Amino acid sequence: MARILVINPNTTASMTETIAEAARSVAGPGTEIIATNPADGPVSIENHYDEAMSAAAMLQEVRRGEAEGYDAFVIACFGDPGLTAAREVATGPVIGIAEAAMHAASFIATKFSVVTTLPRTCIIAEHLVRNYGMDHFCARIRACDVPVLELENEESGAYQLIREECLKAIAEDGAGAIVLGCGGMADLTAKLQADIGIPVIDGVTAAVKLAEALVGLGLKTSKRGDLDYPGPKKYTGAFSQYAPKS
Question: 128 near 114, Cβ under 8 Å?
Answer without folding.
Answer: no
